[in-house]
Amino acid sequence: MSKAFAIEQLDDTDRELLRLLQEDGTLSSAALGERLSMTVTPCWRRRKRLEELGIIKDYQANLDRRKLGYDVMAFAQVRFGNHSANAPDEFEQVILKLPQVLSCHKVTGEADYVLTVLANDLESYGRFVEEVLRRQPGIASIQSSLALREVKAVSRIPVP
């Protein structure tokens, strides 16, 4: 689906429904309908259509990482020495399986990838770097930055 196709399919009610669900993904069709001044069935149909279009990918609860013992958030910049080998593809497959890696982006600039990694403490992050990242073939360098303070951390996407 192209971007234009998805955006053209959204009316004001769809946009408001998306905003409400990003604020609270647990809202029932009845509660959504009430807020949107709709009955339950048309509201449910709209929600289902947005799911089928892939605009709504999934639902999740937002957790407090510190209360779960993850006191360190690190940003690892990974650079490969040889881009022609399969090493980057194999690296991506390894990263996809690691729950402590919250995000991995292939980027432009000095690094090839930027990862957001959670760890209980500095020692456990160090183990992750040594036992996981440094063991991946083809990696030329790893540079880490540690979050000192979280200024903004949201996953809500602005609805156009």
UniProtKB/TrEMBL annotation:
The keyword RNA-binding does not apply. GO terms for molecular function: sequence-specific DNA binding. Keywords: DNA-binding, Transcription, Transcription regulation. Gene3D superfamilies: 3.30.70.920, Winged helix-like DNA-binding domain superfamily/Winged helix DNA-binding domain. One of its GO terms (cellular component) is cytosol. Residues 10-71 form the HTH asnC-type domain. GO terms for biological process: response to amino acid. This is AsnC family transcriptional regulator.
